[in-house]
Amino acid sequence: MSATRLLLSTPANAALPLPRLSCVVPRTVMPGLLASANAAVSRFLIDAGVFGEADVPPSYDDSLRTCEQALAACIRREVGALHCLRPGFAMHVLGADGVPVGSYSAGRPADAPRPYRAVEVYWGETNEQEWPIGKGLQALEAALPGLGRSILQGLREGSARVYPLFTPDIACDAARYVYWCGEDDEEIALDMHCGEDEQEREAMRSEMLTRAMLDDCYPEWAQQRMGRSAKRRCGGCNLRHAARTVTNPRLRQIVADAVALSRLRVKDDAFRPEIEGEYIGFGAVLSWVEGDVTTRIYDDLLQLAHQSECCERMGELRIALDDPGALGAWWRAMRPRFKAIRLIDRLIHQLSDPDW
Predict the structure, then answer these.
(1) Are 225 and 150 in contact (CB under 8 A)?
(2) Range in 53-57, 169-173, 244-248 the model is least confident about
(3) Is the Cα dihedral 237, 241, 247, 249 positive or negative?
């Protein structure tokens, strides 16, 4: 009788509420064993002190991906706003066999449970781009002889173990490897492919990258890394002295950033990945002018590297799940690297300014 009254008292045009799930119910339901393992890894990461519980949203589907996103957010805060670089940090868990969980393992059924044993954190550039720095370096060289080459050298050295860059000297090394059979120019390659046939040699020369093209693109001092003796021979200048000498505010800021980067110079390869094949983990392509031969060399190097084994990571770290202190130690060791990334980005941004 009461149900009848309720039905009669309901207006004909009233919309009945549809049933809905609370927002705290995950959209994806995981098996209990997997969910428990993921929760244990999440607690391991939080206990390591790299990020706090406030970085984890109140609801989520995949605890591992959520922890990865929280880690990336903390790193973005540590590095700060960037203009040119887009570093990406990711992680996955490893089974007892050292294979990432979720990957196929020979001899193991696809649905067999795999115990977690370690976490692997790895990083690299997510969107490498070309940045022409020649005009900026030439302006520095004009202001104080040797300053442009010293800034370039400082950028090379400061980025080598932190955020490797594809600089003109690396482009010249790659040209020897990709086009010239390891030699300093194209003559040996022409001998191998064309012999003494002058018409064939000229036809091949017209289609390939030549030493003359490199020499036309870069000044001599940009083509080679400089040791101390080379710095004296090529006229490089002391950056700390230049910081006191240069009066132009714009140039002085570049020098100050280069000096700061040199003081942060990371001298260890603690997180360098074990390289399988060609290393192509560059953070940016530093051409001399936009669209010059640097990009051609870089693209051909990538194409060649991807035909076999290659390494695109800048760094990686494996940590056993029974050693949360190691993750905190990694975070502390990365802090100078985070500062270096910020300085490298600022130097590229200033040197590639189109208003030079």
Answers:
(1) no
(2) 53-57
(3) positive
Q: How many CB atoms lie within 10 A of CB 232?
A: 11
The CA distance from 83 to 167, in Å, is: 18
pTM of the predicted structure, to 2 decimals: 0.83
Strand-pairing partners, residue 88, are 124
- Single out the residue of 132, 68, 78 nearest to residue 100, CA to CA: 68
Q: Is 277 left (phi over 0), alpha (psi -120 to 50) or beta?
A: left
- Given phi > 0 = left and psi -120 to 50 = alpha, else beta, which region is 195? left
Q: b/e map of 1-26 (b: 16 or more CB within 10 Å)?
A: eeeeeeeeeeeeeeeeeeeeeeeeee
- Distance of alpha carbon 235 from alpha carbon 232, whole angstroms: 5
Query: Max alpha carbon distance in the chain (Å)?
Result: 108
Give, for 320, the enclosing helix (H) or strand (E): strand 315-320
Q: What is the pLDDT of residues 85-118, one digit of tens each?
A: 999 988 888 887 778 876 444 444 445 556 788 8
Three-state secondary structure of 280-297: CCCCCECCCCCCCHHHHH
| Residue/partner pairs of 91-94 with CB below 8 Å, 24 or more apart | 91/64, 91/67, 91/119, 91/120, 91/121, 91/122, 92/64, 92/119, 92/120, 93/41, 93/64, 93/118, 93/119, 93/120, 94/118, 94/119, 94/120, 94/318
Distance, in Å, from the CA atom of 96 to the CA atom of 102, rounded to the nearest integer, reads 13
